[in-house]
Design brief:
There is one protein chain. The protein has about 150 residues and is an alpha+beta fold. The protein has helices at about 5-30, 35-60, 65-75, 85-90, and strands at about 105-110, 110-115, 130-135, 145. It folds into 2 domains: about 1-30; about 35-145, no CATH class. A hairpin with an 8-residue loop joins β3 and β4. The chain is globular.
Amino acid sequence: MSTRVRSSARSLRGSVVRVLGLVLVATINSCAHPVSHEEIQTRNLVIHLAKESQWFGAAGKSLSGGGIEEFLRRVEEEELLDADARRVFPGLTDGTDGWDRKLIVELRGNVVHIRSKGRDGVDQKGAGDDVEAFVDYKDSSAMITVVPALP
């Protein structure tokens, strides 16, 4: 193969790679949904509630099943919520997400899962557009995991 042909082939291959790269970036950007105010509000709320659960564990207290109402009753009982928290997290008092739907609280061993059904209102157990935070509430240094991750 001549040097000129080899050079043209390399140039063409480089152009194809650049074009495919641009198509891939455009595809990824078009697939990511815009993050709404409701989703941001919900993400912040489930993270805050997961942190509240860690304060229970740090105080040597146990959580039980019973859903969001029982969880919030325990938070009230321990006087963990102040006026600032109520103002910053509007759904904190009644356990609703940014779309005004009840949050779901599940306890699996020491791991508390706090989940919203997301935009579509369908509980997909943390998949799809659900917003979920979970953490080992008995380990005050455990990282809180939030799904889905922000795009």
